[in-house]
Design goal:
Helix content: 40-55%
Strand order of the largest sheet: 3-4-2-1-5-6
Radius of gyration: 30 Å
Strand content: 15-25%
């Protein structure tokens, strides 16, 4: 039977059509189970040695994990009927992964395959060879409905809104973020399918799906460039662990189980010493690059003595001026660590020259032995000492004269004063480092030894990163590409970016393309318009976001003399409806909010703990990137006053709602919201 006849044909009887599609779903699930069982039956014993066996077994384990069938997740969500004039099937079911039967015939085509692009991009104006597009509705993992859209009728269906698509976008949620493969829009699809060599920066208003787009682009690139990225790796960098927990199930649901996910702190070091924001701002400035470079190379001292190497009764000398010439030729032409190793080899080579001048015939083994000898090691340690980033920073922040010499004209006297420790620790080992110091150590680490690079990097909430943090991320993909995600209006750090050109420059991708997503699918229009009143104050250059969902009645604002009582009543009302609930409060209000909810089953979200619960108390500083069906915001004025960019924080908080937003307050609202 031809492959295209495996799928059900269009009939005039909806019940018959639905039954046929359900049968195809059952057959596809059975085929996926068979694929997984086959992968599980394979053995690594065929490998010739133990190392190869371990590598092969890891690959087999990944294959089995990638073929997992998530029972509550639709295996396919769409179908294309094509005017087939090629070797490809005339009927294609589009799903999360490829599924074939025992004879290799496709039952489901991966959404990332070229043929699947028409599911997202085809329109009556440009059918892309598709006569009919079918969308499927599901409840859990059960196929419950379908919806056909003819694309060969000359455009009569143009502008028609898909009910199934709308319901899928608006479907209430609990737990982690879901994939959006069934609802990707044409402009999102263009970003997702961007070439690997192209760095893409997405300025995305709340609810536009920028995070999901970035994750799906990672999945698409892994599918399209599997072998290359399997070697070099893909990494997702998010703002905090709560966010990573929220997005953790997206890529595995798409069959991608080998992607590293971390935070900037996880990448650069979990340093948490408290620090004045003004000091952090100086440390985050790109001006520190030149200061750190000078500070490192200032540790090299001018040689004042030559080298004397003794072997038996023979003595071989390298004059002091020759040592100075070698050091001068190496300084600044290589990284610090390799330069130190090269100095030892150059000195050893000069000794070998002396040996040859006396008629000896030394080989490379002799040179290596000389390079490791005590006289050479002592001279190298004296002239070109071994260093760690912590040693350099400790000296820089402890010694005013050293800092001034390294800073030159790059730092003002006031900035130098901010960097100096009031009471320096005795050594770098006892020093307490801040988060901003982590990026400086990484810069120094790369000056000492080259940082390993990745094939692709996805950075979310990039607008919140300092220039030095961005440089740390950029050097990890200097030979690859990146997907940069964020919203300038949601910048809440002292160094928040004012333009994406600036961000891309610090990352080292000046030629990256900036795409703006302003059309929202998740946040109701009434809620988004309310939050957008803050935009002229936090990001006046950005276009106001728009939402496809009117959301009439989705916003309620209550002034109350008893915040605790109003919060409890708002939470009880939200619990009577379907979906997740986030109670977002000023950080100082967390304990009081939890006490107000006594009697209601709830949890408190923390930066380190993974919480999957229907009713969560969320500190305002952890809300970024998260979504809840119902959001209750407590005391906006306190959120604004808690930090220098408090209005931007409030904009973040007000745009976390998918279905409803309730604001309860006893103080006057910020002027922009009145």
């Amino acid at each position: 039977m031809p492959a295209h006849q495996l799928s059900p044909d269009i009939t005039d009887d909806p019940a018959e059509t639905l039954a046929a599609e359900r049968a195809h779903l059952a057959a596809s699930r059975a085929a996926l189970r068979a694929m997984r069982e086959h992968a599980g039956s394979l053995s690594s014993d065929a490998a010739g040695d133990w190392v190869s066996q371990q590598i092969l077994q890891a690959l087999l384990d990944q294959r089995v994990a990638a073929l997992a069938d998530h029972s509550g997740t639709p295996l396919f969500f769409g179908r294309l009927d094509r005017a087939s004039d090629d070797d490809l099937p005339a009927t294609v079911h589009v799903g999360r992964r490829h599924v074939h039967d025992d004879r290799g015939r496709p039952l489901v085509i991966d959404w990332r395959a070229p043929i699947s692009r028409a599911f997202y991009q085809a329109s009556p104006a440009d059918p892309m060879g598709v006569s009919l597009r079918r969308r499927f509705g599901y409840h859990g993992g059960d196929l419950t409905a379908y919806e056909d859209e003819r694309l060969d009728d000359g455009g009569s269906a143009a502008g028609r809104q898909s009910r199934i698509l709308t319901e899928e976008i608006e479907r209430p949620r609990t737990g982690p973020m879901r994939d959006i493969v069934a609802t990707i829009q044409p402009d999102q699809d263009e970003i997702v399918r961007s070439e690997l060599t192209r760095t893409v920066c997405v300025q995305g208003a709340p609810g536009t799906g920028k995070t999901a787009v970035g994750l799906h682009r990672a999945a698409y690139l892994l599918f399209t460039h599997r072998e290359r990225l399997a070697r070099s790796g893909v990494m997702i960098v998010g703002p905090n662990r709560a966010f990573l927990s929220y997005i953790s199930s997206v890529l595995p649901a798409l069959g991608e189980v080998k992607v590293d996910q971390t935070t900037v702190a996880g990448l650069l070091g979990e340093y948490s010493a408290p620090e004045d924001p003004a000091v952090s701002a100086v440390k985050g400035d790109a001006k520190l690059v030149a200061v750190l470079r000078r500070a490192l190379w200032m540790h090299i001292v001018k040689p004042t003595e030559g080298l004397l190497f003794t072997k038996g009764i023979n003595r071989y000398r390298v004059a002091d001026h020759e040592v100075r010439e070698i050091v001068a030729s190496l300084r600044g032409t290589t990284r610090y660590g390799p330069g130190r190793a090269a100095l030892a080899q150059r000195l050893a080579h000069m000794v070998l020259v002396r040996m040859e001048q006396r008629g000896e015939s030394p080989d490379d083994r002799v040179q290596d032995a000389v390079a490791r000898s005590k006289p050479v090691r002592q001279l190298v340690d004296q002239v070109w000492p071994k260093l760690t980033p912590q040693q350099v920073l400790h000296r820089l922040f402890s010694d005013p004269e050293f800092l001034a010499a390294a800073a030159k004209d790059d730092l003002t006297a006031e900035e130098q004063s901010l960097l100096l420790w009031a009471k320096p620790p005795k050594s770098f080992r006892s020093a307490k480092w801040s988060a901003a110091d982590g990026a400086l150590m990484d810069e120094l680490g790369d000056l000492i030894e080259r940082t390993a690079v990745l094939g692709h990097l996805v950075v979310d909430e990039a607008q919140d990163l300092s220039a030095m943090q961005l440089r740390a991320l950029g050097r990890r993909c200097r030979t690859g590409s990146a997907t940069v995600l964020g919203d300038l209006a949601q910048g809440t750090t002292p160094w928040s970016a004012r333009s994406w050109t600036e961000v891309l420059s610090h990352l080292g991708f000046e030629d990256g393309a900036v795409t703006e997503l302003t059309l929202g699918f998740r946040v109701p229009r009434e809620v988004l318009d309310y939050a957008a009143r803050l935009l002229p104050s936090v990001a006046p250059g950005l276009a106001a976001p728009r939402s496809l969902r009117p959301g009439a009645g989705s916003l309620s604002v209550h002034r109350t003399p008893d915040l605790a009582d109003s919060l409890a009543r708002a939470a009880q009302d939200a619990l009577s409806r379907e979906g997740s609930i986030g109670v977002i409060v000023p950080d100082a209000w967390v304990n009081a909010a939890s006490a107000a909810l006594t009697g209601l089953d709830h949890r408190v979200l923390s930066a380190d703990a993974v919480e999957d619960h229907r009713l969560l108390v969320v500190p305002a500083t952890l809300a970024k990137g998260l979504e809840y069906d119902h959001v209750i915001v407590v005391e906006p004025a306190d959120i604004v006053e808690a930090e220098p960019r408090g209005l931007a924080r409030l904009y973040v908080v007000l745009t976390r709602a998918v279905t409803s937003l309730t604001v309860v307050h006893s103080r006057d609202l910020p002027e922009q919201l009145r």
